[in-house]
Design brief:
By secondary structure, the protein is mainly α. It is about 65% helix and about 0% strand.
Length: about 60
């Protein structure tokens, strides 16, 4: 797992959708909210917040 702040591949919008489904099933509202923000940023073509990306990266870690 890469450390925060290092240049690494970030989960794509598609990956965020997958994590969103799993987090919904588990009732993980923090991860659900982060996924929604990442998906919104991806749809706008923006860079998601580092903190949201950390939540997504840590979900399966």
């Amino acid at each position: 797992m890469a450390l925060l702040g290092q240049d690494c591949e970030r989960p794509s919008g598609e990956t965020a959708w997958t994590i969103l489904d799993a987090a919904n099933d588990l009732g993980d509202t923090v991860t659900v909210d982060a996924c929604r923000r990442v998906i919104d940023a991806d749809l706008r073509g923006d860079t998601p917040a580092t903190s949201d990306m950390a939540v997504l990266s840590a979900f399966f870690g």
